[in-house]
Amino acid sequence: MSQHERAATHFSLNESLLFEEGSPGRRAFDLPKLDVPARSVTDIIDPKLLRNDVPGMPELSEVDVIRHFTRLSTWNYHIDLGLYPLGSCTMKYNPKINERMARLEGFSLAHPHERVESIQGALEVQKALEECLAEISGMDALTLQPAAGAHGELTGILMIRAYHESRGNPRKKILIPDSAHGTNPASAAIAGYVVESIPSNKRGTIDLEQLRKVVNEDVAAIMITNPNTLGVFESEIAEIAELLHSHGALVYMDGANLNAMMGITRPGDFGIDVLHINLHKTFTTPHGGGGPGAGPVAVKKILEPFLPYPVIEKTANGAYRFNDDRPQSIGKIKAYNGQFGMHVRALCYILANGAEGLKEVSEVAVLNANYIRAKLKDAYAIAYDSPSLHEVVFSDRVQARQDVHVWDVAKRLMDYGFHPPTVSFPLIVAGAIMIEPTETESKRELDAFIDAMLSIAKEAEQNPELVKSAPHTTRVGRIDEAAAARKPILRWRPS
Amino acid sequence: MRYIPNSQADRGQMLAEIGIDSIEQLFAGIPEKLRLRRLLNLPRALSEPELLEYFRQRASRNQVDTPSFIGAGIYRHYIPIIVDALISRSEFYTAYTPYQAEIAQGTLQAIFEFQTYIAQLTGMEVANASLYDGSTGLAEAFLMAQRVTRKNRFLMARTVHPEYRAVVNTYAKNLGIHIESIDYTPDGRIDLEKLESKLDSNVAAVVVQSPNFFGTIERIHDIAEIAHKHDALSITNICEAMSLGILKPPGEDAAENRTADIVVGEAQALGVPPSFGGPHVGFMATRERYVRQMPGRLVGMGKDFSGRRGFVLTLSTREQHIRREKATSNICTNQSLCALMVTVYLATVGPKGVREICEQNILKTDYAVAQIQKQTKHRVLFPAPRFNEFVVESPLPVGLSLGRWYPELKNARLLCVTEVISREQIDAMVRGLTA
User: Fold this and answer.
1) Which residues, in sequence order, are bridge partners of residue A472?
2) Is B2 a domain residue?
3) Is A354:B44 a contact under the CB 8 Å cutoff?
């Protein structure tokens, strides 16, 4: 297929910065008239504490604002437009009903410090979500407080620390496989631990025998991603957990890849003690162009006393309440109790699916990934020959012979109308191309993507310059990132 | 399942292409003893009409119609309709983090505009692309000040939001950070003498909030000057970002030593609904010379190779995906969509609108205070100038009880009056206090 069968170019309007568009006297907003006696603010507050104006802030009309952001919006790729094959990111369709439910005024206007009788609906939603996530993950208790995946990691590691401290020794080290997300070591460091990297074996998984040599009483925990960032299930996970437990250490799991296993296998059943869950991946809360996310943390009973406070409890008369009285808690990890708007959306998604639906989600996600693997494996080198679950990792080994690298393939995909896959990650694969299609893509969409990838592989052989200079059809070309970082311009200033 | 496009026939074809007979074979890598051989025990699947009913019922169990006069870090201001109309565009809310700049210019330019607005409002040189919220933002400010100064001792006002202080403690306790609390005076502001007496060259930073948790406006420029005299950084936390529309911002003063080094806060007040505590949007602004120590994403303006203006995530060598355990922070996401809400909100209300809103907040709050003083027996505490919150000594259930955080104020309650509260509602509240 030529690129023109899938993507055609179409005009997009140029648009200045808001600050270049303002014109004095325009307005997009009116306030009701003041209904208390008018006075000068300077009679109430010392003028020395006041500012005269906000220099540079533009005056715009309502139509100006609408046109500005609508034009900007057309410059974005997004999941409602097409496949977003970002490995480890689980870019799936975000059901519209989720958005509508989170905007119900009873939710969007609720304040967490209201009297408990006035917030029963919100507490019930949070408790229901906790119960669903506990069942899906096979864990005993949850906190919904963390704002994102990395925030959940920090929460989990702090709980591990509190657990060890309660037994007299916080221990020193966290073991992390070299295939892990960068947030894993960064979170461990903020919790005050030293990070020890564990090399992967030839299958791309953790080497149990190597691990035996490094696990000792200094190790607080191992942080595992399962299936790992290669999309491979750690088949010795139960033995790994047993090894860590035999030394009094715990097992943390990064739940980024839960989309591969719902109703198939449960972290709680294979020895995981702490797990964070990315609601913005598996549970369809929108990515929003980079957040908000939500990163609930699920734990086994032994860690329950250390959960951030408050926890939600159901009282004997069936009412819900926040309980702050948690003497062993790690404390608060965020003000209030988490990204509630995301909790509504995630619960809505779980209830839309039910048990059979969620299992089907994981089955089709894995099927779609394996279909891509089967269709592309002759054109692109498979990084590790282990069986793939929900994502598949290739390398640019074949294309690199023509000096065409992952970034070139990624950028060329844009000309075919696709968002690129995750590239250059995991770090253990040179020139990694990590593809996760998710279950919400049709065979037709997958076939178009496969055709594009095959066509680019051919171009890399026959016309490598075409690929290396891509993208050719986007409204801007590759940005000179080195120049942008040398002398960063991070805000508009009047010229 | 309605969100899965592939039919059974499609799936059959795909299995044939892969060369297997069943999806089950794809899970062969998972040991049998670890397989779940039962269905998850979840509520049955609901159709769309049933979902609507389920959530409408629960939403109706929250009471949001009568004003409760509670602010305390979450503020109900009017949000123009176009904010939700624009952020509901799929192009914004279903997009990923803008790592691929060529097809994410919309998000990138909008974040650049957010950074500019935050810099303008705070009077600071640069701002980042947003943080999870104000409380975690404040914790990040501590970590940043520790990196900049290589010192571990901090002085923090007791009038900083108590939940924020709790979050800071959670972050700080394993990093050798030592925090001393500085008490307030009867006028409801930080005790400047006590602050000065505790300061020495070992202090990394002085941390205050303005308007503080009691709603009073701190003398942040004097505090910055005092901090700098002792070689400490000045960190200002702002929970009520609307106030920046009228109060002299921490970054603005003729003398550089009277301006803050780090301004951090919560921008929920600017166009983001309360939503039971989140998602909201933290912000952080600083001096240009500290930008490489700042956590979180940053969008920079640049050029593509044919010279066209474009925007791109920049200075990412600070971040976890490159630096791993040596990163400035473990943060990966920002709160992009909420930052967009703030950007659209500020574009809509404009400089005149934000000033008028601030004036109404101040005047209505002043009216409420005057009415309580005139018509009730209850004492209004803390006479320092206020923005939109104040503290009343009263056992009656209005506003938020302060006793759980301030034992000495166990009979005191924190009240908030914004532009969405009418005079009738204020009068009714005051009548309630006379009862």
Assistant:
1) none
2) no
3) yes
Are A443 and B347 inside 8 Å of each other by CB? no
User: Do residue B385 and residue B323 come from a single domain?
Assistant: no
Q: Please confirm whether the linkage preceding A310 is cis (ω < 30° from 0).
A: yes
| Residue B110 vs residues A65, A280, A494, B296: alpha-carbon distances, Å | 12, 21, 18, 16
Residues B176 and B230 in one domain: yes
The C-alpha atoms of residue B395 and residue B414 are separated, in whole angstroms, by 12
Query: Are the beta carbons of B113 and A18 separated by less than 8 Å?
Result: yes
User: The domain that contains B363 carries what CATH number?
Assistant: 3.90.1150.10
Q: Is A341 in Cβ contact with B3 (below 8 Å)?
A: no
A contacts of B96 (beta carbons < 8 Å): 79, 84, 86, 89, 91, 287, 289-290, 419
Query: Does residue B102 belong to any structural domain of this protein?
Result: yes
Distance separating alpha carbons of residues A223 and B12, to the nearest angstrom: 37
Closest CA to A408 of A475, A462, A473, A478: A478
- Together in a domain, B265 and B409: no
HSE, CB side, 13 Å, CA atoms: give it for residue A406: 21
Q: Can you give the pLDDT at residue B45?
A: 98
Contacts of B321 in chain A (CB under 8 A): 181-183, 425
Distance CA(A468)–CA(A288), nearest Å, equals: 30
Q: What is residue B302's three-state secondary structure?
A: strand
Q: Does pLDDT of B155 surpass 50? A: yes
Residues of B in contact with A344 (CB under 8 A): 55
Whether A387 and B80 lie within 8 Å, measured CB to CB: no
In tens, the pLDDT along B293-318 reads: 999 999 999 999 999 999 999 998 87
Q: Which of B4, B217, B400 sits opposite A364 (nearest CB)?
A: B4
ipTM tops 0.95: yes
Measured in angstroms, the CA of B308 and the nearest CA of chain A are apart by 7
| pTM higher than the cut 0.95 | yes
A37 contacts B367? CB cut-off 8 A:
yes
- What is the percent of chain A where pLDDT is above 70? 99
Rounded CA separation B139/B9 (Å): 53
Please give the domain boundaries of chain A with CATH numbers for all domains.
97-351 (3.40.640.10), 355-474 (3.90.1150.10)
